[in-house]
Amino acid sequence: MTIVRTVCTPNCCNTCGLLAHVEGGRINRVEPAPFPDTRYTRICLKGLASLERQYHPERLKRPLRRAGERGSGRWEEVTWDVALDDIAARLKDIASRHGARSVAFATLTGSYGLLASNTANRFASVFGGSVPTRGTIMGDNGGNMGMALALGRVTAHEPEDWANSRFLILWGRNLAETYMNDFRFVLEAREKGAIVVAIDPRFTPTCAQCDQWIPIRPGADTALALGMMQVVIQDRLYDRAFLARHTVAPFLVRTGDGHFLRDSAGQPLAWDLANGRPGPAGDTGDPALTGTYAVDGIACAPAFQKLADLANGYPPDRAAAVTGVPADVIRRLACDYATTRPAAILLSQGAQRYFHGHQFFRAGITLAALTGNLGVSGGGASSIFIWPMHSAFDYAGFNYPDGKRYASLPGMMFYEAIAEGKPWPVRAAWFTGYNFINQAADPNRTIRELFPKLELIVASEQFMTATAEQADYVLPVTTFFESDDLVLAYDNLYVQLQQKVVEPWGEARSDIEVFSDLAGRMGLGRYFDRTPEQFLSALLNSGDPLLEGITLERLRREGAIRLNLPRPYVPFADKAFPTPTGRVEFYSERLVEIEQELPVHLEPLEGPGSAQGKKYPLTFLTAHSRFSANSQHFALPHVAALCPEPLLEMNPEDAGARAVRDGDEVEVFNDRGHCRVKVRVTPGIAPGVLNLHQGWWPRDFATGSQQSLTQGAVNPDQVFIGEANWAIFDCAVDVRRVWP
Question: What is the distance between the alpha carbons of residues 644 and 638, in angstroms, rounded to a whole number?
Fold first, then answer.
């Protein structure tokens, strides 16, 4: 028997190391792999069930070609040569008639392996195709957008630093289920005396381990943050020194046009209280934060005053009316957060999955800035790592060989590129690591209107997913047990080597093998003339000091190696913020044009006051489950034994109004679609809110699916900032009982 160290790579952020026990060419057991820090030696049900995925009887073994109408379920097995010869010919033909960028390669996070998740990008670049951006179409870019606006960079405190906090707010962040292996650091903080508060419309397993649960109306998070700011500012609980030195708080804002008042050299000005006149903000020792001033006849006020004016519109009583959180709870939360140092806000990807979700992240960061909790151990307003975990690697060298670069298609415009040819027509789509029909918005429209316009659909898959069912070709790809790769996390700073453990199932091939063979057929083989090991070495050999000394050889010996960073990693410890001003920008000149220069609260697109909200009065959430990383695990026997079917969580008040009892079958519906599902009536979800865990396959429902209800509207304000984000939680529905 041999034991091989590899990595569990599904999209659950933890990327746990695994030891695979192999006998007779077959894996018979997995267990946690050791880490230099034993706190990261861990495994969960999904990792334990990985063997069931590996040897599942429904795993695809050979390439399949459609033999009937799309979605008919009629297939024929073909050889790899037949499949790739035909695909190559059709790609060339489509490119000759519509341009190469009409072929879209959509890759998401089915695997965290660098080759698995980037090889399609490399091929798209040398072919001249297009790639839909990832974060937007998966609903994760709103928070990134807000964080980048305020801080200049998307980053986070190392989870082990949470244990150094004395007060933590888990804002919609269900760590016990979605970051279960890192929740230990929150519990460690609590054991040392920290207060932990959960803000969430649902009473989750995380809330059960906190000192306080604060249920909130979905999409009202920015209003709650503004209510807290009002208390902090009114009671003078803010950190004046931090605001003056490290934020735009003292910058004078022109009342007329909303832009910063600058001197002839372009430097922002502040009002110097000591001298009674304006001066460069960086040279002003005692700048005014409040008041109004006239400079050469120009009326202006410090940015902090503008923030105070906005917050004054949300005293606890008004914030309570908007959020559903009692006024006394808002006041106490604000005071406790502001007076207990260090304090951390753990921001949630879920809380930004509303039409205006980027504003919530800006508001959370503003709270941290008000209280001086940025750049300090145990503090911060953190979400997930993008920098420095992913910035150190030579992605550009891999994705854009010889300077060739794919056409970047805004993810939310993928639909319109197919339907309307805007911003350019898409006539073929290749999905890798992405169960698009199961996971993206409004699949009814996709199947009915979009896919019929595509001349070719290819799915690289391990199972016959809902997306694969609609494809023309389904190509079997390897699991993380069957190929070599580098794996990075979104919740820690370790690099790991995914090592091949066993030979591929049937005729499955890795993504790098598939696209290398295809490239050779299309005269592009010179861009895929290296081995996977050589590509991985090049990715590591970026020259970034964070990777100095980290090699494939070391990774084979040591398994997991941490980036060269101080421990614990505390972003902005030097108080250097990579924004245009070098400070925390809670006030953004860029957004004056759309009247969002401050983190204003904007109602959800399908909130209670909207036309949809009045027609369909319940907010429909699709939170992540502990049992499956998106759609990858629900089909596995051990998972099914614990979580056999989808259940709709519903408050007793809403259930009673519709004559619905626990265990009843109901139909959830709106104008876009419907699904039939059993109900779990529980006080653990706020009135007016429903939850049905995402990731279930259409076959798990009597009719419809949870995604049939979701919308994919494009927010023009987010387009102005950068790119629209899928607002998956911004969804109004109603429920009716299905009578026997």
Answer: 10
The pLDDT of residue 385: 79
Question: 274: which 2 tokens?
Answer: 């000591």
β-pairing, 473-476 with 485-488? unpaired
In SS3 terms, 527-573 reads as HHCCCHHHHHHHHHCCCCHHHCCCCHHHHHHHCEEECCCCCCCCCCC
Q: Is-contact 692 646, C-beta < 8 A?
A: yes
Q: What is the pLDDT of residues 600-609, one digit of tens each?
A: 999 999 999 9
Domain shared by 660 and 701, yes or no: yes
What's the pLDDT tens digit per position in 716-727?
Answer: 999 999 999 999
d(CA 112, CA 486): 8
Contacts of 656 (CB under 8 A, 6+ apart): none
Give me the CATH number covering residue 269: 3.40.228.10
CA nearest 464: which of 452, 453, 476?
Answer: 476
> What are the pLDDT digits (tens) for 214-253?
999 999 999 999 999 999 999 999 999 999 999 999 999 9
Q: Work out whether strand 298-302 and strand 293-295 pair parallel, antiparallel, or are unpaired.
A: antiparallel
Largest CA distance in the chain: 85
With residue 344 as reference, give the H or E element that holds it.
strand 343-347
State the Cα–Cα distance between residues 452 and 128, nearest whole angstrom. 23
DSSP letter assigned to residue 113: B
Residue 146 — left, alpha, or beta (φ > 0 → left; ψ -120 to 50 → alpha)?
alpha
In degrees, to the nearest 5, what angle opens at C-alpha 613 toward C-alphas 609 and 619?
115
Q: Residue 44: inside a domain, yes or no?
A: no
Give the residue among 33, 25, 56 at the shortest CA–CA distance from 633. 56
Residue showing tokens 């879209």: 104
pLDDT of res. 492: 87
Residues 6+ apart with CB under 8 A from 513: none
What is the extent of the structural domain holding 311?
Answer: 157-383+575-594
Query: Could you tell me if residue 294 is inside a domain?
Result: yes
Tell me: do 400 and 321 sit in the same domain: no
Is the Cα torsion angle 44, 48, 52, 55 positive or negative in sign? positive
Quick one: 556 exposed, middle or buried, by C-beta within 10 A (0-12, 13-18, 19+)?
Answer: exposed
